[in-house]
Here is the input.
Amino acid sequence: MDRNVDLTKSAADPEPEEDQNKEDERRQMSTSSSLLESAIDRFAREGGFDDLPLKGKPIKIEDGDVLTGIMKNANYQPAWIELRKEIAADIKRLVDRSDPSMISESEYEAINQKIIKYNRTVPNSQLQKGLLSAANLHAALDKWE
Here is the structure.
């Protein structure tokens, strides 16, 4: 009869010893957690948080995710942003010419190749931009700056 009981018992069922060990661990974590909370409460009651710098002032929370904040602090910009700035500078150089009719087709094509590369590397399709031509040169400058 004992054999039938052992066969019906699942291997995944914890033994009473295992249950007791898990319960002991939970109690220890609960005890250490409550000890920490009581220590923090006592510290606050004794005025430990009263003379902190910037007390009473709002905490400045940066927008975006942690990675964006780290890259911003390190003055790092992704390649597609650097390429956008380069394209904007190229378009501005063309717009600033005294005679826009002297702009060759190869200059437009060189910038358009950069625009194609930019459109392939941007993280969101909404950031993609149209190609450059003599007809939309001034409008393109507004979009790229």
Residues 16-45 form the longest helix (30 residues). Residues 5-11 have pLDDT under 50 and may be disordered. Residues 4 and 78 are 66 Å apart (CA to CA). The chain is about 60% helix and 0% strand.
